[in-house]
Write a structure and sequence with these properties.
Length: 259
């Protein structure tokens, strides 16, 4: 099972858009995928809430009642799978603490899920900000994908993510693979070029070549409960995420063997 955490400390950088549409790109290539909404704001869950999700089966049940992740995953009408989120996730830090057992819990749960569905790729849409939920996702992940929108505040937040990942390495005894993705890019704007240059200065080869362009279609497709390929498979946004899929395949080949 391949586990990809999508995380930036700053909200509004396209994390949920990337989680959903990258998973959809994976699925279009006949790859089994699942999404975990790890944000108490539950934006990913809201996209599909109207299509019959069982809202009593959500990620907090894994922490609260020990229900296995595989028993919480729900099929969507488009073939994707989702573990929904709820605002109760905000209680994880206070109720379970930040000790090693709590931080390892998600990874252990994913390992058990992987025994049942070893071919799955799991995309974790993380809460903005460093806390138990986001740290757990980074602990459990094979790759952390950091979306960076075309503004300088996003770069600063991405740099903090990099420092947090580096701080975890002595605990995990391995380097956490990460890649930085420029989102909301508009080639007509000088800011986009400036931000990309600064990203490459700070993060070097870990900046992906693919850029996700600013597209109203992302907002509109989510509003009507669709990913970008359902909404308009010929759109620039769909092409961007399919290009990202192929680039990440090359990245994944360089990762240690996943379990």
């Amino acid at each position: 099972m391949l586990k990809i955490a999508i995380f930036n400390q700053k909200a509004g950088v396209g994390s949920t858009t990337t989680a959903l549409n990258l998973a959809a790109a994976w699925q279009r290539k006949r790859q089994p995928v699942a999404l975990i909404d790890m944000d108490p704001q539950a934006q990913l869950t809201e996209i599909y809430k109207h299509v019959g999700l069982e809202m009593q089966q959500h990620l907090f049940k894994f922490y609260q009642a020990g229900i296995p992740l595989v028993d919480l995953v729900q099929p969507l009408r488009n073939g994707l799978q989702l573990i929904p989120a709820t605002k109760e996730l905000m209680k994880v830090d206070t109720e379970f603490g930040r000790g090693p057992a709590t931080l390892k819990r998600l990874g252990d749960g994913l390992a058990q899920w992987g025994l049942v569905q070893p071919d799955n790729t799991v995309f974790m849409d993380c809460i903005p900000g460093i806390g138990v939920i986001s740290l757990s996702a980074m602990f459990a992940s094979d790759l952390v994908l950091v979306p960076v929108s075309a503004d300088y505040l996003s770069i600063h937040s991405a740099a903090k993510v990099g420092k947090a990942l580096n701080a975890l390495e002595p605990v995990l005894k391995r380097r956490i693979a990460r890649r930085y993705l420029l989102t909301r890019a508009d080639k007509r704007k000088e800011m986009t070029s400036e931000v990309e240059q600064e990203m490459r200065r700070l993060f070097g080869h870990e900046v992906l070549l693919t850029k996700i362009s600013e597209q109203a279609a992302f907002t509109e497709s989510a509003r009507i409960g669709q990913h970008i390929f359902e909404y308009d498979a010929a759109s620039q946004g769909a092409r961007d995420y399919m290009t990202l899929y192929f680039e990440l395949l090359d990245v994944i080949k360089q990762l240690p063997a996943t379990a």
